[in-house]
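anyone seen this seq b4? input:
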Amino acid sequence: MALEIKVPSVGESINEVTLVKWLKADGAWVERDEVLAELESEKATFEINAEQAGVLKHIAKENDTLLIGDIACSIDTSAERPASAEVPAASPAPAKEAAAAPKAAEPAKQAADVKATPVAAAIIADKQVNPANVVPSGANGKIYKQDVLAALQNPGRAPQTVAFGRNDRPEKMSNLRKTVSRRLVEAKNTTAMLTTFNEVDMTRIMELRKLYKDGFSKTHGVNLGFMSFFTKACSYALQEWPAVNAYIDGDQIIYHDYCDISIAVSAPKGLVVPVIRNAESLSMADIEKKVVELATKARENKLTIEEMTGGTFTITNGGVFGSLMSTPIINIPQSAILGMHKIQERPMAINGKVEIRPMMYLALSYDHRIIDGRESVSFLVRVKELLENPELLLFGKDPVKTLLEL
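predicted toks r here
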């Protein structure tokens, strides 16, 4: 009996996907729930699994564009399981042999820790290959059978390429890259985008991180980074300047009483922008945990459509790549985006004296159709004030003025 495996629905707005790579060969025996192929939509990468055990037959080819519901492959569930598909139980090694050759067990342990297909992992364990010497060809550093065989043929060195070659290598643009390209052009063509700049003295934040980073990590199980300070500061500023947290829908302006902060993350297949929901009500530790969770999912191509839609404001950090200043492009339909940059020590005039301070340029790109110059500049000045005086992040106001009700 041939069981048809169809492309599943991955979101209301997704009509087609691209079959990026077959992970199981045509005619191979597959087990139930085994990953068969990688598919890519315009927003995320996902996998299809075997619904039953049997012999796999490819129907679609790699790089084919498939509609939702199209048949990607079929599985012959009536086929007889080949003897080679049965995994024999490992027999315990004699204690004397184990003591005599402790290094023999190390490749097997390493193989269990790396990302590899079952066949590749078996070869690594059998041939005692060091996974560090294998050049992975799969997404997110996944090792395939051919990668291990290449490492065995070239022991001690990675496959060489011809230096100063003149080869052209055409490569089909992924759905994700197409979407990013389309949205960036749309943002430039449909918004009255301007950018305003400021700079923030990071001295206080860096002192706080140095003083409390160990205790914070021990208490909350996550590092104290810069993103929680910026997210918290933006949440307060967005509530004070609601136009920056709004967007245009036809002839209406949609305001939000909450702050769903989108965080731009560089993933293996392009830029993705997962969302931290209700950032205004999260603690610093909750924000840091969410950033780590979303960034990890982005690197592993495991973000869902829901996790990447619905943001009201975006923060992007070009500083991690060394950018000193840039003009970020609005993440439509949002109306503004804050760009963080590299922290650079610069001489600053402080109380009439020149001091070296860790400074960061901030850039706020905004849609002038909805946000006036006064609002954009005031928003950025407020973010600067909150970052340079982190104690204000507790209430959003000066504690003494709050006490005195001023």
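The radius of gyration is 26 Å. The domain at 2-76 is CATH 2.40.50.100 (OB fold (Dihydrolipoamide Acetyltransferase, E2P)). kinda curious what u guys think
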